Amino acid sequence: MSLGLVGRKVGMTRIFTDDGNSQPVTVLDVSHNRVTQIKTPDTDGYSAVQVTFGKRRASRVNKPLAGHFAKAAVEAGHIIKEFHVTDEQLASLKTGAVVNTEIFQVGQRVDVTGITIGKGFAGVIKRHHFTSNRASHGNSKAHNKPGSIGMCQDPGRVFPGKRMSGHLGSVRRTTQNLEVLRIDTERGLLLIKGAIPGSKGGDVVVCPSFKITNIRIQPTRKDTEDGSKNKSAQKDKKAGA
Prior knowledge:
Layout: E1 5-16, E2 22-29, E3 33-39, E4 48-53, H1 63-72, E5 79-84, H2 87-91, E6 98-99, E7 109-115, E8 120-122, H3 124-128, E9 166-168, E10 172-184, E11 189-193, E12 203-208, H4 221-240
Antiparallel strand pairs: 1-2, 1-12, 2-11, 3-4, 3-6, 4-5, 7-10, 7-12, 8-9, 10-11
C-alpha cells in the first residue's frame, strides 16, 4: 500500500477538456493532511504513516487522542488514517509535516474508499434486484414478496446468506481505477472522473490504484480527424497508381 490522502467529498460537477468534451467529476477536499505518527519496523514492526484530516473542537477530543495530537504538535482532526508505506517514503516524512496533493499527478489512477449512502430498510426488489410477481391472474397480495425462503423438513432451516429484506447502504466500499483529471494545489482539491461512494460531506480515502486494468482510451476529436485525413490520402494514392 502506498501513501494516500484523507479528505471530504464536496460534490459532483463537470469540466470540459481541450477537445470540448464534457467529463463528470467528483470534487474531493484533501487539504492539510497532517502526519500524527510515524511507525518504523524497530518500534512497531512495520513501516506506516498515520495522518489526520479536518478539525475537531477541543471539547470533543478525549484525553488519549488529545495527548496523541499534542505529542505530534498538530491540530486535532476528526478522522485518522494509517497508510503502509515503503522505507524510502518513510524517510522523507516526519511527525507534524503536511502532506498535500503533490503526491498525485494528473492522469493517475486512484482507488477511493467511502461509506455509501444509507437507504434504510429495503425490500428484496430494491436491495437485491428481484423481479416482482404477477400483477393479476390469481396473485393475491404477493406482488412484491420475495417468495419461498424455507426448506423441506431436511434441513428444516434457512441457509445463512439468503437474500432477503434488510438494511441497504451505509457500508464501506471502494471504487477502483478512477482517473485524476485535475488538481487544484492551492485549495487542495482533487477532481476525479466519475462517481465515488458516499454522500456530500462524507469522509473518503484516496490511494494510488492497487491494481490497474487495461482501460480503453476513447480517441479525441483531433485523432479522429487525423485518421480520416490519412485514410483519404491513402485512397488518393491508390487512385493515382
